[in-house]
Design a protein that fits this description.
This protein is mainly α. Helices cover 82% and strands 0% of the residues. It has two helices and no strands.
Length: 60
């Protein structure tokens, strides 16, 4: 019903041009940050931090 007029189509196109890039950026951000869990450097850093905490807590 919104797009029955030329101004309605303009509103639809403007809305898509605003929200589509935001949605794409959100999806890419989530994809990149979730991939961080599988990063070997990140896993090595996490393991080193856990070893440091274990060693620190075990010291008298």
């Amino acid at each position: 019903m919104l797009a029955y007029t030329a101004s309605g189509w303009t509103q639809v196109i403007v809305a898509i041009s605003i929200f589509a890039p935001v949605l794409v950026a959100l999806v890419l951000t989530i994809w990149v940050l979730r991939g961080k869990k599988n990063d070997p450097d990140e896993q090595r850093l996490r393991r080193a931090q856990e070893e440091y905490r274990a060693h620190r807590d075990a010291a008298p």
